[in-house]
Design a protein that fits this description.
binds acetyl coenzyme *A; binds magnesium ion; alpha/beta; binds 3-methyl-2-oxobutanoic acid; 21% strand
Length: 513
């Protein structure tokens, strides 16, 4: 059985999803979960792209031990230097240098001749290899590049020190049989291909991301790049969970396996969905809510008689069962144990905060599931030093013939308390009008999404909002047993993050000035 390395790029290409913006703490939380999932390489970001990304990559590189950490860099000295500064403390420093090789990108975007591209690629890989023991080179838009030219580039960068060669289908243009031929061609025509790992990276513009990844693996790729839930630029990247499960279920066909801890898939998907505010569609393969649901009579009959009639993947395989090991009579020890099993590694103060929220919930809800605990954990692990406002109390008065009125108490970081009332045409609008008055800013609400965790009448509500103010867009999320409380918390979460971002930007400007 061939081993296929999983290179996860949720924190880099995944974060390029329009509207997704993860802070350092959220990125670290995802990285810790990717480590538990046993991905081989985590692409933690693009250090030269912003001070925030630089810091996230550095923090992740210093915290994760069981997966290799890498960062993206253009074929440019300053990007490579920045990646080195962020990654030098990691266990196995690894860089990902890229430059485009297709005629359209070279001519119009880079404004370079093919020879100049080879020269820049070789120069950059040599520079990178002086610092990093592992250098990955990507020929951006490889699938629309001239194949003999690709061979020339790849031979030259392997000579310069590249140890991994990645051939991305950057715009999701190629088809499975074509990518198969491309990998086969490269395998047979690059004289030194045995010195490097061959990698595939596919986008989903034509819905072929996973199919192309599997075809490339069949044709010789031993590394596959993907993201959790398939998030990413435009239509997204090939989805990690679909590739890992396809390799497992059809190992007879691919004769290859990943080392992914499949039982962690559902949990990883839920975490990424929550932190990125990107809902997982119900019919999404492997991790969607309906992936193991059987609706029609003939199917249910078949399942009752013999599960394999309609089930090729068991929910247990991917950790999709929800258990309720904790209840209102559970104590702190069992609770702490369970949270650490779920990957919680926060302070005692945050643990106490989650425990109080759990007890409140257990009083109201029949079953507290792992998904509920995950939601409470995510809700509580925001950096409290960056919290300007907190929702202390909320009362909403609503009647069919009456203007909804919200009365809200907010506590401020300094210990002060604000109380205000306001109205709106609906209950949520009344809350948001009141919060706008209290925070003294008019934030435009550009998105509002609500979902229940696990379903059922007593489910937790999770609200995601997007606020816009003076050119900045900010996501926020809130979890509560009540939808109105979750709505207020989501709004305040976005406001707090917006304020923290502005303070950070002002700090950066002062440093530069
Ligand atoms: C296929 C991919 O996913 S590639 C990764 C894409 N990810 C991102 O772009 C996310 C983060 N990006 C950013 O924050 C910014 O684009 C930055 C910081 C990287 C660069 O910002 P700016 O310096 O303002 O440049 P801008 O983004 O406008 O243009 C990109 C420049 O890089 C050049 N460039 C693009 N790719 C490469 C490359 N692989 N190697 C060298 N130069 C490159 C472009 O030709 C352009 O150069 P020019 O300024 O001489 O015309
Ligand atoms: C940077 C490269 C690998 C990329 O994301 C792409 O080409 O899609
Ligand atoms: Mg990409």
């Amino acid at each position: 059985m061939r081993k296929v390395k999983i290179f996860d790029t949720t924190l880099r290409d995944g974060e390029q999803t329009p509207g997704v913006n993860l802070n350092s703490q959220e990125k670290l939380e995802i990285a810790l979960q990717l480590e538990r999932l046993k991905v081989d390489v985590i692409e933690a970001g693009f250090p030269a792209s912003s001070p925030g990304d630089f810091q996230s990559v550095k923090t992740i590189a210093n915290s994760i031990k069981d997966s290799s950490i890498t960062g993206l860099a253009r074929a440019k000295e300053s990007d490579i230097q920045s990646a080195w500064e962020a990654l030098k403390q990691s266990a196995e420093p690894r860089i990902h240098v890229f430059i485009a090789t297709s005629p359209i990108h070279m001519k119009y975007k880079l404004k370079l001749t093919p020879d100049q591209v080879i020269e820049q690629a070789v120069h950059s890989v040599k520079l990178a290899a002086q610092k990093f023991p592992h250098v990955q080179f990507s020929a951006e838009d490889a699938s629309r590049s001239d194949w003999p030219f690709l061979v020339k580039v790849i031979d030259a960068v392997i000579d310069a020190g590249a140890t991994v060669i990645n051939l991305p289908d950057t715009v999701g243009y190629t088809m499975p049989s074509e990518i198969s031929k491309l990998f086969d061609y490269i395998g047979h025509n690059v004289s030194q291909i045995d010195k490097a790992i061959l990698s595939t990276h596919n986008h989903d513009d034509l819905g072929m991301g996973v199919a192309n990844s599997l075809a490339a693996i069949q044709a010789g790729a031993t590394q596959v790049e993907c993201t959790v839930n398939g998030i990413g630029e435009r239509a997204g990247n090939a989805s990690l969970e679909e590739i890992a499960v396809a390799l497992h279920i059809r190992s007879d066909y691919y004769q290859a396996s990943s080392g992914i801890h499949l039982k962690e898939l559902k949990r990883t998907s839920a975490l990424v969905s929550r932190l990125s505010s990107m809902n997982v569609p119900g019919n999404k393969a492997v991790v969607g809510a309906n992936a193991f649901a059987h609706e029609s009579g003939i199917h249910q009959d078949g399942m009752l008689k013999h599960k394999e009639t309609y089930e090729i993947i068991t929910p247990e395989l991917v950790g999709a069962t929800s258990s309720a090991p904790l209840g209102k009579h559970s104590g702190r020890h069992a609770f702490k144990e369970k949270l650490s099993e779920l990957g919680f590694n926060g302070s005692e103060e945050v643990l106490q905060h989650i425990f109080t929220a759990f007890k409140d919930l257990a009083d109201k809800k029949k079953e507290v599931t792992e998904d509920d605990l995950y939601a409470l954990m995510t809700d509580a692990t925001d950096d409290r030093s960056k919290t300007t406002y907190e929702v202390d109390a909320l009362q909403v008065s609503y009647g069919t013939n009456q203007m909804p009125t919200a009365t809200i108490t907010l506590s401020l970081q300094e210990g002060e308390e604000l109380i205000e009332a306001g109205t709106g045409s609906g209950s949520v609008e009344a809350i948001y009008n009141t919060l706008a008055k209290m925070t003294g800013q008019h934030y435009a609400l550009t998105d509002y999404k609500i979902q229940s965790i696990n379903g059922g009448e007593d489910a937790l509500a999770e609200v995601h909002v997007k606020l816009q103010h003076e050119g900045i867009e900010q996501l926020g999320r809130g979890v509560a047993h009540d939808v109105l409380e979750a709505s207020a918390k989501a709004y305040i979460h976005a406001v707090n993050r917006m304020i923290a971002r502005r303070k950070h930007q002002a700090g950066e400007k002062t440093k530069v000035g």
